[in-house]
Structures are given as structure tokens and as C-alpha cells.
């Protein structure tokens, strides 16, 4: 089971502007915050996400093949999260829509640091 996921950032304030509205749409907020780290989620709740400046002091970089998937409650919420991402400095990696015929519906995007995410719902 995953407890939380971190993504690297080179600008904590910019990351906050990007992730705050997405977290709010998902019904949560910041649960931990330091000068170089913000975590969104609920204490003792499901997995959360954090943006952090790398501990080693080097610039944050994107992992090739790495993606964080945010579970939405329905297709309309997938659409809203994707739109929020783009409105707050993200870039589109695939508009919301069905993927295959399994009932999987997702919208893909990157945060301002280039980390890839998606919002999805099954069924």
C-alpha cells in the first residue's frame, strides 16, 4: 500500500499554486508544510501527494516513465481537475476521455516542474 508520493519542485510557491486547487477539488488540503516541502492529504487517510525541493540540493528533475494518478469520484471531476491543472500552469498530456473499452476515463497533465500526473475514474 502506498502511503504518499512526492514530486520534485524547484519552486515551492509555484507548486503550491498548482496543487492547492487540485487538492481542494479532491476534498482535501495541506496536511504538512515546511519551507521546502508541502504535503496534501488527510492525516491517517488515503495516500497523499507532496511537492519538495530535493534533499541533496540539486535541481528537481522529472522521472522518465513516472506518473502520479489521482483518483476522482466521477468523470466530471476528472474534467475539472484537468482544467484546474491547465489553468494553474500545467500542460496537457492528453485531454480527458475514455481510454480503451474497460471503463477507464482519464485526463493527463504535467505540473509546472514537468512531473506527469493524471486524474482518473474506473467504470
Automatic annotation (TrEMBL):
Name the InterPro entries for this protein.
Answer: Glyas_Bleomycin-R_OHBP_Dase, Glyas_Fos-R_dOase_dom, VOC_core
Q: Which residues form the VOC domain?
A: 1-122
Give the Pfam families listed for this entry.
Glyoxalase
Q: Fetch the PANTHER family from UniProt.
A: BLL2941 PROTEIN, GLYOXALASE FAMILY PROTEIN (AFU_ORTHOLOGUE AFUA_5G14830)
Q: What is this protein called?
A: VOC family protein
Amino acid at each position: 500500500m502506498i502511503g504518499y508520493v512526492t514530486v520534485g519542485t524547484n519552486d515551492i510557491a509555484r507548486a503550491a499554486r498548482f496543487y492547492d486547487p487540485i487538492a481542494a477539488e479532491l476534498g482535501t488540503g495541506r496536511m504538512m508544510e515546511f519551507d521546502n516541502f508541502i504535503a496534501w492529504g488527510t492525516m491517517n487517510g488515503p495516500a497523499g501527494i507532496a511537492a519538495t525541493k530535493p534533499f541533496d540540493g540539486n535541481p528537481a528533475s522529472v522521472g522518465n516513465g513516472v506518473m502520479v494518478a489521482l483518483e476522482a469520484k466521477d468523470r466530471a471531476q476528472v474534467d475539472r481537475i484537468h482544467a484546474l491543472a491547465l489553468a494553474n500552469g500545467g500542460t496537457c498530456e492528453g485531454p480527458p476521455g475514455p481510454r480503451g473499452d474497460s471503463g477507464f476515463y482519464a485526463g493527463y497533465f504535467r505540473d509546472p516542474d514537468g512531473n506527469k500526473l493524471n486524474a482518473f475514474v474506473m467504470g
